[in-house]
Amino acid sequence: MKKLLLLLLCTGVFGVNGLRAEEGETLEINVSDKTKNTVSKALALKNKDENKNLTAKDITTLTVIGGPFVKRPGTDVRDTGEPDITSIFSGIGHLKELKTLDMGSAVVGSSEFVVGFLSQNHKKLTSVILPEGTKKIRNGAFLGLPISAIILPGTIEIIEPRAFKDCSNLKVVTGKWKNNPPAVSSDVFSGTPGDKILYVPVGSKQGYIDKGWKTFTIMEKQEEPQKTGEIYDKTNAPGERVTIHMKNNEPKFFPEVALERYHL
Questions:
Q1: What are 69-105's pLDDT values in tens digits?
Q2: 217-245 per-position pLDDT tens digit
């Protein structure tokens, strides 16, 4: 009886890989597929395929693939002519229970991709992966959000003031600039924990220090090359095993971000 109870706990709570299961439902948007290139279309297709009756409030993880992104004219309330998450994905603002936004496998087109306005609707967002090709993070984009981990691609050129202000749970940031990271002013990360960690490529630490990333404990980290579809297991400490699924020859998360996301 005890063995059966233990088995049920391991598979039900932590899932088959031994990781803590995410609450809620995962929705995948494919920018290249007209049948699921918006929240409403993807949700309708998921309900049909899985015989469910889900609504926006049931979605806690949003995965975005495909591309390239295109500007939807007239949908950006600032009307700056710059594409924004809320103007690209119709309905993303309705996902108010969203905890994880994974755009790591998405494709950004030639137009400038800007991150902004997430703080208006996503008060439960904890983990974010931004796509390669992102150019700018706007003033106050993540203001006051409970994010604990974020991956910033090496294509970002500008991080505006107050972008991560008062993100009091922010613990792990992964910066992928191998050289010349963007300069950050003192108020970009004001109100964030003093013990947060910044993981950067090997040999790039001084560049971050020179550009104002001094409020972090900066650690150089080498991503290990893997084959597509391979599962990468890493033991960070006794009893802590992280399984990272490979996609496009790259880990979807640094081990530390996976640890943060799955609370190991």
A1: 765 544 443 444 555 565 566 577 788 899 999 988 8
A2: 999 987 655 443 333 344 444 444 444 44
Contact 148, 126 (CB under 8 A): yes
Paired tokens of 40? 């409403």
DSSP string for residues in the chain: -HHHHHHHHHHHHSTTTTSPPPSSEEEEEETT-TTSSSHHHHHHHHHHHHT----GGGEEEEEEEE------TT--TT--S--BHHHHSTTGGG-TT--EEEEEEE---SS-EEE--HHHH-TT--EEEPPTTEEEE-TTTTTT----EEEE-TT--EE-TTTTTT-TT--EEEE--SS-PPP--TTSSTTS-TT-EEEE-TT-HHHHHHTT-TTSEEEE-PPPP--TT-EEEEEEETTEEEEEEEETTEESS-HHHHHHHHT-
Mean pLDDT of 26-34: 87
Per the prediction, the chain carries an average pLDDT of 75
In tens, the pLDDT along 105-148 reads 887 776 667 787 676 678 889 999 998 888 899 899 899 999 99
Cα separation of 123 and 14, whole Å?
25
Peptide bond into 161 cis (omega under 30): no
- pTM for the whole thing? 0.73
Cα dihedral 249, 153, 157, 210, rounded to 10, equals: -110
**Strands 158-159 vs 134-137: parallel, antiparallel or unpaired:** parallel
Q: Taken in order 48, 38, 36, 135, is the CA torsion positive or negative?
A: negative
Residue 240: both structure tokens together: 């802590």
